Amino acid sequence: MGMPKSVAAVALMGMMVAAQQHARAAEERMSRVHANQTETWRVWLPKGEHRILVHGDHHTDLDLYVYDNTGHLIVFDVGHFDDCVSTLSTARSGYLELRVRNLGQADNVYELSVE
Questions:
Q1: Given this structure, which CATH class describes domain 27-114?
Q2: Which pTM was predicted?
Q3: Could you list the mean pLDDT of each consecutive 10-residue stretch along the chain, which spans 115 residues?
Q4: Could you write out the DSSP letters of every residue in the chain?
Q5: Where are the domains of the chain?
């Protein structure tokens, strides 16, 4: 005798939600990008909606560029500050290249967060 269909459906939904939370767990990195330099990160993202944040130390202007695995620019955040936010939707899992560019004359210690 198996589980009633409604109980099985609820159990399956619970497993899907748990898997989704695990796959979308935030990843944070701290780094220092030197004056007038660009730092590059290669990040694996599962299929779905994502947000990429850069929070600098407020000493210089930072810009964020996100490229797909074929080298095409897909999203970016440029401005006059060192806080960047980009959102994107990936159709399938894969690697993306994130570039953090320091436009200032001093180093900038920043936090990179991928959600």
A1: mainly beta
A2: 0.75
A3: 44 35 55 96 94 96 95 94 94 94 97 94
A4: ----HHHHHHHHHHHHHHHHHHHT--EEEEEEE-TT-EEEEEEEE-SEEEEEEEE--SSS-EEEEEE-TTS-EEEEE-SSSSEEEEEEEESS-EEEEEEEEE-SSS-EEEEEEE-
A5: 27-114
